[in-house]
Amino acid sequence: MGVPPSWDVRAVVENMAGECDYPHSDADWPNCPEGLAVQFEGVPDAEIDLITHGNAMRWFSYDPFSVLPREECTVGALRAKATDVDTSFHSPRRLTQRGDGIDVSLQGRWR
């Protein structure tokens, strides 16, 4: 992953977390998983799991798989459940013009 050889790779991996800024309109979502797949090419699955969710689960003492089984939390399964959700890109200007969930005090900053 581009870590200098003098570093303890395990310590680095156990202190990393990925994020895609969802649900903000400038997020990589819904294409984040595909982008991560390219970035993680050649990285062991165990390290990918730590970076994508395992570390956050440990840090926040939260087990999302107690709510939904792991097999229902894959990208494919979650996308299948959310077919009614609009995941298309919305620019901040469009949100300002429509007034969708953006503070009106920010309107002048997006031009």
From TrEMBL:
Residues 89-111 are annotated as: Disordered. Gene3D superfamilies: Metal-dependent hydrolases (3.20.20.140). This is Amidohydrolase 2. It comes from Candidatus Protofrankia californiensis. The lineage of its organism: Bacteria, Bacillati, Actinomycetota, Actinomycetes, Frankiales.
